[in-house]
TrEMBL record:
InterPro entries: CoA-transferase_III_domain (IPR050483), CoA-Trfase_fam_III (IPR003673), CoA-Trfase_III_dom3_sf (IPR044855), CoA-Trfase_III_dom_1_sf (IPR023606)
Annotated GO MF terms: CoA-transferase activity
Taxon lineage: Bacteria, Pseudomonadati, Pseudomonadota, Betaproteobacteria, Burkholderiales
Keyword Transferase part of the UniProt annotation: yes
Keyword annotations from UniProtKB, A to Z: Transferase
Domain of life: Bacteria
Pfam families: CoA_transf_3
Entry-linked SUPFAM superfamilies: CoA-transferase family III (CaiB/BaiF)
Name assigned to this protein: CoA transferase
Length: 419
């Protein structure tokens, strides 16, 4: 049975936290969506008439009630749920003052402008800190606030290449399809959003003791290097750069995909006990006693010999037969799903990882927007899904009214193009 999120009315863990979101594309919006999911009031500032860049990054596009494609790119919906969209032209003096007024009472501001880009508008950290010493100001850039690359624009693909991630991803040189390869999603952006949200939560906790906010400097390059994890640790220990190995794990064996009778299957054996149980189930118990394969270190060192035995064995059964054989033996083995098959998977459906959110905005042709559920499961202060990714400027009047801007002033702001 799929969870019914619509009945969840408990206040979120971050209820009462006000966030001003001046970010766009993915890393910043991913960070602020996480805060919004946890209950923060996130006000997303977008350019009038244009909005976040990702509103136009299509196809694919959202579909209307009749199944026809609209001009709204689905990319935007991946990272802007539970936010309120306000259109403000920050190059306009009156819009800048509105943002300063809101920042004076906000808890968090997230931005991903180029280094120094907001200083000209009086929206940089030093300017806003003077108005609100409690403000937590998170800057997300490609290369950080200082250093020789600080003023360079940084995108996920560039950083995947620069940090070494692409050089360890893909098939080895000389193999079919060999060469550096990017990940299938913008993983550096996503990790950066997660690191940024963690830093913000830490800063909120620190503020409880000190009463003061702080500036958070988050860089895609820093994150890209950090997420190399064991691969970076291996280099630091040996001085040797790791190479590409396709789907083979550099430190575990067998831990990769295998061709079966009908498709491919993933075998992810992480310890000697699992290997022994696999060998027993596969009818080859002697392999687990062979000194070449008895330990993981031995299996890694003798990987070629092990694969010469495993590859023909794995072709004797279908993928489903291998999965059925091993699933009750505590031997990790599973399918390599398409995205469509993943969403149809019984466990994915049970966990409610697809969330359909109604959206009612004047003139909008899209009645429901489907998003992926947050993986955060808090027992007392659970995630709430109270707002679909908004139409551009959907909440401008609502939010400006809360900021004390009356109808006449809003009309004047519209007339001059400030909102």
């Amino acid at each position: 049975m799929e969870p019914d999120f619509s009945q969840n009315s408990a206040p979120g863990a971050l209820a009462g936290i006000k966030v001003l979101d001046l970010s766009r594309v993915l890393a910043g919006p991913w960070c602020t969506q996480l805060l919004a999911d946890l209950g923060a009031d996130v006000v997303k500032i977008e350019r009038p008439g244009v909005g976040d860049d990702t509103r136009h990054w299509g196809p694919p596009f959202l579909r209307d009630a009749g199944g026809q494609a609209t001009e709204q790119a689905s990319y935007y919906t991946a990272c802007n749920r539970n936010k309120r969209s306000v259109t403000l032209d920050i190059t306009r003096t009156r819009a800048q003052q509105l943002l300063r007024d809101f920042a004076a009472t906000a808890d968090v501001l997230v931005e991903n402008f180029k280094v120094g880009g907001l200083a000209r508008y009086g929206l940089d950290y030093d300017s806003l800190k003077a108005l609100n010493p409690r403000l937590i100001y998170c800057s997300i850039t490609g290369f950080g606030q200082d250093g020789p690359y600080a003023r360079r624009a940084g995108y996920d693909l560039m950083v995947q290449a620069a940090c070494g991630l692409m050089d360890i991803t893909g098939q080895p040189d000389g193999a079919p399809g060999g060469g550096p390869l990017k990940a299938g999603v913008a993983v550096v952006d996503l990790f950066t959003g997660l690191y940024a949200s963690n830093a913000i939560l830490a800063a909120l906790h620190a503020r409880e003791r000190s009463g003061l906010g702080q500036h958070i400097d988050t860089a895609l390059l820093d994150v890209g290097v950090a997420m190399l994890a064991n691969q970076a640790a291996g280099f630091l220990a040996t001085g040797e750069s790791p190479g590409r190995a396709g789907n083979v794990h550099p430190s575990l064996a067998p831990y990769q995909d295998f061709a079966t009778r009908d498709a491919r299957v993933l075998l992810a054996i992480g310890n000697d006990g699992q290997f022994a149980r696999f060998c027993q189930a596969a009818g080859q118990p002697a392999w687990a006693q062979d000194e070449r394969f008895a330990t993981n270190t031995a299996r890694v060192r003798n990987r070629a010999e092990l694969l010469a035995l495993l590859q023909p064995l794995m072709r004797t059964r279908t993928s489903d037969e291998w999965i059925a054989l091993l699933q009750d033996k505590a031997v990790p083995c599973g399918p390599i799903n398409t995205v469509a098959r993943a969403f149809a998977d019984p466990q994915v459906r049970h966990r409610g990882l697809r969330v359909d959110l109604p959206r009612q905005a004047p003139g909008d042709a899209v009645p429901v927007v489907s998003t992926v559920a947050s993986p955060l499961r808090l027992s007392r202060t659970p995630v709430r899904y109270h707002g679909a990714p908004p139409v551009l400027g959907q909440h401008t009047d609502e939010v400006l009214a809360e900021w004390g801007v009356g109808p006449a002033e809003r009309a004047s702001l519209r007339a001059e193009g400030a909102i």
